[in-house]
Every structure is written in structure tokens, then in C-alpha cells.
Amino acid sequence: MPDLRRDPIVGRWVIISTERNGRPHEFVHLQPARPISTALCPFCPGQERLTPKEIMAYRPQPAEPNAPNWTIRVVPNKFPALHVEGDMGREGVGLYDRMNGVGAHEVIIETPGHTEGLADMPAKKIEDVLWAYRDRIIDLKKDLRLRYILIFKNHGAAAGATLEHSHSQLIALPIVPTSVINEIEGCRAHYEQKERCMYCDILRQDLSDGGRIVAENPEFVCVTPFAPRFPFEMWILPKRHAGYFEESQKTQFEFLAPILSDCLRRMDKVLARPAYNFILHSSPLHERTGDFYHWHLEIIPKLTQVAGFEWGTGFYINPVSPEESAKYLRDAEL
Amino acid sequence: MPDLRRDPIVGRWVIISTERNGRPHEFVHLQPARPISTALCPFCPGQERLTPKEIMAYRPQPAEPNAPNWTIRVVPNKFPALHVEGDMGREGVGLYDRMNGVGAHEVIIETPGHTEGLADMPAKKIEDVLWAYRDRIIDLKKDLRLRYILIFKNHGAAAGATLEHSHSQLIALPIVPTSVINEIEGCRAHYEQKERCMYCDILRQDLSDGGRIVAENPEFVCVTPFAPRFPFEMWILPKRHAGYFEESQKTQFEFLAPILSDCLRRMDKVLARPAYNFILHSSPLHERTGDFYHWHLEIIPKLTQVAGFEWGTGFYINPVSPEESAKYLRDAEL
Fold first, then answer.
1. Which of A1, A148, A329, B203 would staple A214 via disulfide (CB 3.0–4.6 Å)?
2. CA dist A281 to A105, A296, B230, B298, B311, Å?
3. In contact, B216 and B222? CB cutoff 8 Å
4. Each residue's pLDDT tens digit in chain A (334 positions)?
5. Residue numbers of A annotated as active site
6. Which residues form the Galactose-1-phosphate uridyl transferase N-terminal domain (chains A, B) (predicted)?
7. Is the dihedral of CA A179, A184, A185, A187 positive or negative?
8. Are the beta carbons of A269 and A331 closer than 8 angstroms?
9. Which long-range contacts (CB under 8 A, 24 or more apart) does A62-71 make?
């Protein structure tokens, strides 16, 4: 009998329908991550002139901007979805609302190595990527027109990457997206009723239960959520309550980097290096939601085709239970 | 400057970012609809034994069930996401909620012709498909465990179809999916404030404005929505307020079939027969939302890759404005 499960935060129901389900290898290579282009890569050292002028870079030795010899480099997206300049132009058009696409769209080039993926890097290098995320959020937070910053990674063509050189993206928005509002409102309702953070309650239950734990260390835990939209979906959460990713302390990044590395390598092992997305979920910039909202990182391997049913309802059919996903991931030999 | 637009019903913002945009042919064949299998087709006449036993069929002459000589045939999905038998088994698991996957999952085989798509059929045949939808909803509505019925079509492999023989699907759910709740709540708030249906207001404004109209006839209109998630997304709505698809009168289906045919053919012409989904949005079965919710059909050609950003936020980047999509579709020579 399929299982219907409700996400306790946003109230979204999913069908866990494992009857068509086989072992992980049956999900493998629906659309594998693979080289997209062998053309001259704009993210490689020596090709800096092919990107817009850099916003920030980490270099072991001081050097001119846009010179090689960087370890991480942040540049504006060449085809930005939003523009930094301009006024908001908020207006109503009859019953509709619109505004200008003011915001920022940046690319975080994670490594000078063209073929080095995040899962291949030593944890210390991943820690620097996390610092780059933090530094960009703190800088953009000064712009009071911006209300939300989304950091995400598309890895592999099937997950939407158009360049294979490992990179993440940042989009800063003048509005808070509805699904973030839904998560926050779910947490707010729980907090108002119980004076506790919903994600903290989830962590307590899941750590005690154990069946959906993928990995943990003193500061972080990786779980498969109770009502996952996708097979092998994973969430990494700080164990201690924290609303804002960018307020993390140095020691926290020292624990986040290895667990992220560990989880990506488990996923690569079980699913044979799938395309994937990850998305950082953190509090809106200027709203005091930090008491009841708990930042986390969602990792979604791109294995299934999302069809009309999902678009029509936001109601997902997932062929693998999170307990089974977690077991495969936990048992992977690294 | 990209345009940020808000859907007036669910409050979802989208970016209309046309700077990377070219003409429609540039969207063509990202993943074309194509034959999936030449193996023995379970939906062809004479192969009736390859499906579960039929639930209903239209036949010009009376005949035994599961015999050939049908024009439309409805069968249970061979790999159902939900099962009709069983009790609900609603339970809490600590802070989580779950229930058994009780419901129905049916396939509406729209034609005996293996290669005939919905867009190839005469309007009269499409009308019969609409009657089949209606008949199944009315039958399933008697089961008081069911709270929502979703009818949708995946056409082409890229849109999630696993068999190429033209068919739609029906999923009857014991819950109302969250995105339907979001639409209904948006409409309820508008109605409480103004005593008017939000979609009726949209129709009035769009018909007067004209820029997003694709096609219309005395009973229906097809528009591109103001804040579309996807390029060339279309909504077909009854002009007169109606909350329940299944309460449509005969004359309404006589007008719905030709406008659906017309819009699919316009889409095929402009986008060179893309894969697509359509999803019927109608009121929940046993809640009196019909005063303020307005049923409609959403058509989504499958042209773009949905990446991490969209999953993370429910916030879409659309490279084509709905005014431009509507103009291309309106101007298509059929």
C-alpha cells in the first residue's frame, strides 16, 4: 500500500509509492552529469577576460583583480536574471502587481580546476566555498532593497548547469519567494503554539529514531526528510538552532564542510555521480524570523522526471521511502 | 530590465527575463515529443488483455467489456500511485502525519488510433474525451473518502509520458493538494474582500486589455497568464463563472473541445509539436468553494529545464513574456 505523508512545515503531502521501485542502480543515469562543452571555459584561470569583472576573489597572494592565481572567484552572471541598477518601479496594473527586476545574480566559481567537482575537493576547500557564500550575503545584505538571497548549485546538465566547471549561483531578490514564506509561516505557527522551532523538533525526533539519519557530526546532521518530494533528497541542518546561515561561526563551517563532502560522496557512490541541485534555505534578510526558522541545505539528486501531476498540484510521487534512501546512503562505503 | 510579476491568486512571483530570449524556434526541440516504444502497445484495440480490466468505455455498438471496437477506454493504471481498496489508516508518528495511499489512478485512452494525438482529432472526438473525464469524476465523487480529483495529460517523453498512444490520467486523492489549497485560499480572500471571483476579474481585465488573449469563443477564452511560470503557458477558462468542471453542460463541452483543439494546434505550429502537460484545475469534491473558485485548464509546453533555483523557491525565471507568447500563438496560421 503506498504511503501518504505530510511535510510538517509547509503541509505538502507526498505519495511514497515503492511498488515500481527497484534498487538504487535503477535510478542511475536517467540523465547522468557529463561534460557539456569542451569549448574554451570562461571559469578557468587565464580566461578571466571571458567573464564580467570579478566582484570578489580569494587569492593566496595579493594580486590585481581579474588576474589568475585565485582559488575562488565570484563574478556577475553574464546573462543575469536580475539587475543591480535601477529603481524598484513597483506598480499595480489593474489587479496585477509588478516591479522591476532589481537584484543580483552572481556566479561563485568554486575552484580553478576545470574537472574538480565539489565532491572531489578536500573539506578545507569546501569550507572556503562556504566562506565565499557568507561574504557575498553579508555584502549584499547592506542593500536594503534586497529581501532574500538564494544560494544554489546546479551540477550536471540534467540539473540545469550550462557549464561543467564547478560553480554555485547567488540570486538576491527584492521579494521573499512564496515557498520560503510557506516554510516560515509553517514554523511561525508551530512556534506560536509551542515556543519551539519546528526543525529543532524534527531533529530531536529524527536523531532519536535514527532511521532517516544519513550522517552526523558534533554540529550538523544530514537526514532524509519524512515526506521527501524526490528519491534520495537530503537535508543538512545545524544541530543547534540558527536562523541565518551567514551568522555561522568559523567552527560551524569547519563542521559543515566535511558533512557536505561526506553526503555528496555518499550520493555519488550510491547513485553513480548523478546530476544534482542543492539549495541553501536561510532566513529573509531583514525580518526577525531567526527565532523560529532554522537554516538548512537541501540536496536533490536529479533522478526522476517531474510530470504534469507534480506541476498541477505540488503533490509529488516518490518511488523510494526516505528510510530506504537513508539506509543506502548511510551504508555506502566511501 | 527584467520584469518581476506576481500571480494574483497564489502570490507567486516570477521573473520575466527576456534578455536571453530569441524567437520561438530557439525553444523548439529542447526535448521533442517522439515515439517512445514500438513494442506491442497495450492501449491499441485488440490488445485489451494487456491492461487491467476496463472501468468504462465508449462503444458505438453495445459489446462485452474489454472487447475491441471502443472509441474511448478507461482502465486502472497498471502501476497505480494509489489503491482503491483499504482503510485510511490516518495516524501521527511523533510530530509527523501519514495515512494510507487510498485513492484511484486511472488512464483515459483517448482514441483507438496509435498515432493520433489530441491535436490531430476532430473537435467532436475531443468532446468525447471531456465527457469521459466528467463521467469518471461523477462516479468517483460518490466515494466520500476522496477529496480531490486531478485530471492531467503528459504528452511526449519529455513531459513524463511513458507510452506514446494518446492518453490522459486521473488521480483521485484523499487530501486536497497544497497548491490547490493555495489557489483556493487566494480566491477566498479576494471574494471575502470584494464579493467577486478572482478569475472572473482576471477575465474581465484580460479580455478588455487583449494583449494576453490567445483565442476565444462564446463560452471560453484562452489566455497566457500575467505571471506565467513557463514560456507559452496557457490557461483556458469558462467565461461564465463555474467552480466545478464536472457540472459543465453539454453546450459548454461543445465550445471547450474546439478551443482546446485550436490552442493545441497553435502551440504545435509555433513550437513544432512540443512535449506538453495539461492539468485540469477544478474545485475539491465536497467543499463548497464553487462560489469563489473558477475551474480552468492549464497547458504547459515542456521547453525549459527547471533547475535548483525553481525547486528552492517556487520562484520561476521565464524567458518569454506572456504578451509575446500570446502574440505568437494568436498569429499562428492554422
1. A329
2. 17, 5, 24, 29, 11
3. yes
4. 667 777 777 777 777 766 655 555 555 444 444 454 556 899 999 999 999 999 999 999 999 999 999 999 999 998 888 888 888 888 888 888 888 888 999 999 999 999 999 999 999 999 999 999 999 999 999 999 999 999 999 998 888 888 899 999 999 988 888 778 889 999 999 999 999 999 999 999 999 999 999 999 999 999 999 988 888 999 999 999 999 999 999 999 999 999 999 999 999 999 989 999 999 999 999 988 889 999 999 999 988 766 556 766 677 788 888 999 999 999 999 8
5. 167
6. 4-177
7. positive
8. no
9. A68/A112, A69/A45, A70/A45, A70/A112, A71/A111, A71/A112, A71/A125, A71/A128
Could you please state the CATH topology (level 3) that the domain comprising B7-83+99-331 is classified under.
Answer: HIT family, subunit A (3.30.428)
Inter-chain contacts counted by CB atoms under 8 A, chains A and B = 225
For residue B61, the distance in angstroms to the closest alpha carbon of chain A comes to: 34
Q: Do B96 and A309 touch (CB under 8 A)?
A: no
Whole-number CA gyration radius for chain A: 20
Q: Is residue B162 a contact partner of residue B83, using CB atoms and an 8 Å limit?
A: no
Contact A308 B209 (CB under 8 A): no
Cβ pair B93, A323 in contact under 8 A: no
Q: Which residues of B touch A279 (CB under 8 A)?
A: 308-309, 311-313
- H or E segment at A276? strand A276-281
How does strand B56-58 pair with strand B220-223? unpaired
CA distance A56 to A131: 12
Q: In this complex, which of A5, A86, A201 lies closest to B95 when CB atoms are compared?
A: A201
Provide the CA B69 distance to its chain's centre, in angstroms.
27
State whether B308 and A79 contact (CB < 8 Å). no
Residue A175 to chain B, least CA–CA distance (Å):
8
Q: Are strands B56-58 and B72-76 parallel, antiparallel or unpaired?
A: antiparallel
DSSP state of A43: T
Find all residues with CB under 8 Å of A2, minimum gap 6, and list them. A15, A16, A17, A18, A19, B80, B81, B82, B83, B100, B101
Every domain of chain A and the residues it spans: 22-29+37-58+102-331
Residue with cell 580553478: A112
